[in-house]
Here is the input.
Amino acid sequence: MKGRSLLLTITLAAFLSGLLDLVVAIIVYSILLDKTTALRILQSVASGVFGKTAYSGGIEMAVIGLVFHFIISFIFTYLYFFAYTRLAFLRKERVFSGFVFGFFIWLVMNLIVLPITFSGLFPSDFVSALIGIAIIIISIGIPVSLIAHFYYNRTSLN
Here is the structure.
């Protein structure tokens, strides 16, 4: 039963953080900065696999991008929950570890995954990088850190 509860918690945390990340990205990039649309954001996620054809794929590619987005969210959330049981720092510094985790996600995505997927793509400028880092810390890093803490505290790991 404990394993099932853990998987459910990870899944819900991944869904929540993925949803937060997407909503905040849409608000910032589509509404506040007027740089793109929600459809384009999701198509850009799908373009990591389908290339430029994702941008002409309409809503279907956006849905595929949404699925990929939540898969990525699940992977990072699982990694945090796995590391939480092994690294005392994560258990002691809940909020700060959320900052560190969010920054780690940004580094992995922007310095490894995106440059490999889009051959050589790096963050365009310092301000854009800071916005991206803030979005990930606020919407993924801190929520996943707190959810992991509450889950493991409830199950008496600490």
Notes: The first helix runs from residue 2 to 32. The two ends are 19 Å apart (CA to CA).
